[in-house]
Amino acid sequence: MEHNILVVGGNGLVGKTIIRILKSRNPQVNVFIGGRKGGETDHHLKIDVTNPSTFQVIDDKKISLIILSVNDKSDHILQFAIENGIDYLDITKPTPDLVRAYDMAKNTNVKSRIVFSSGWMGGIVNGLAKTLAAGSSDIQEVKLFVYYSVKDLAGESSAHFMAENVAKPFIRYEDDQQVSVKHFLDSEKFDFSFGIGSRQAYNFDVPDLYILNQIEKVPTVSVKMTYNSKFITWLLSAFQKIRLFNILSLKERRMIFGSSGTGDQSVFEIIVKTKDGVEKLSLQSTEGQAELTALSAVLHTEELLKSIHDNKIYFSHQLHQPFSLLEKLKAYETIHIKSSR
Q: Could you list the residue ranges that cross the membrane (predicted)?
């Protein structure tokens, strides 16, 4: 069967990385690149997510799977995929947008695989958490700790999300109760692996908070992050405490969060508490967050290519057997994983 895959946002950092990894692992698939300006080859398609009239080319090229790696706030691509029975994989949505899109999709007649993959690093945290317990029903608490380096290569979307939302409260969960918190507050000391050491980590909003509690029914979920620079981490916390973010313009906030380096490691750690004790899984991507996010998207895509999954709505970790996902990640040369009780 011929597989025609379209990467919308394929000219961006993560989109380009998805295409590179996907082609290297699956040379038999046809990959098309969607962008607002099109391109010089037949595989470059002019697609503007804000203008559905540009979507006709998706039908013309008989696209069977759309990978969305650019922000589509109005969900035009999602609606097009549902209406035309095209598989859909979205790695872009912050929590509020994800909840809205999921609610919309649930109220439609889905005739394809609709996959939301917007959790941290392409939605793999929730699957990896399951490897630390017999099943999600056994998990009492999940803590995610994120190490974010300003030296890492980063696209615009994460910086724009932080700029737009840093002054707004978001939700974490404690005993199935919603707790309203803000970024860069509620410090917790954590000893990071891979030579990073002890750091103060602060509140951070990622879709895994919603997914773990609302979908996987984990009663207590929190996410905290630290920057590679202890000074930057402390400074952002100080800005939040004095409410500086509330008076800065969006442009000024984007200047604060918009830096992108030439490359650095990305690390996250999952702490899972069950009735039997506490276990930890630590993951390092030596090539950074773009590489790991793109690899995750490719692993989800490869599951969809098997055509063993029914037409319905998924969160990306639901496509995988947890230990199979773990082994695939371990097999990738730039990823290192260790776990401990």
A: none
pLDDT, position 138:
83
Question: Residue 241: what pLDDT?
Answer: 96
Task: Tell me the residue type at 246.
Answer: N
Architecture of domain 4-121+290-321: 3-Layer(aba) Sandwich (3.40)
What is the DSSP-derived secondary structure letter of residue 160?
A: H
| Closest C-alpha among 51, 95, 97, 45 to residue 67 | 45
Helices (H), the chain: 13-25, 56-60, 76-84, 95-106, 120-123, 125-130, 156-165, 208-210, 230-241, 244-247, 250-257, 289-305, 322-331
Predicted pLDDT of residue 40:
78
Angle between helices 289-305 and 322-331 (to 10 degrees): 130
How high is the pLDDT of residue 334? 96
Task: Give the residues of the chain that fall short of pLDDT 70.
Answer: 1, 134-137, 154-158, 259-260, 341
Angle among Cα 85, 210, 105 to the nearest 5 degrees reads 20
Separation between Cα atoms, residue 223 and residue 9, nearest integer Å:
28
Phi, psi of 252 (to 5 degrees): -70, -40
* Segments making up each domain of the chain, as ranges: 4-121+290-321, 123-288
Instruction: Give the tokens for residue 120.
Output: 């941290």
Q: What letter represents residue 223's amino acid?
A: V
Cα angle for residues 142, 145, 150 (degrees, 5° grid):
155
Q: Which two tokens stand for residue 171?
A: 């939700």
Q: What share of the chain is helix, strand, coil (3-state, %, to 5)?
A: 40, 25, 35
Question: For 203-240, how does the pLDDT look when each residue is reduced to its tens digit (9 = 90+)?
Answer: 999 999 999 999 999 999 999 999 999 999 999 999 99
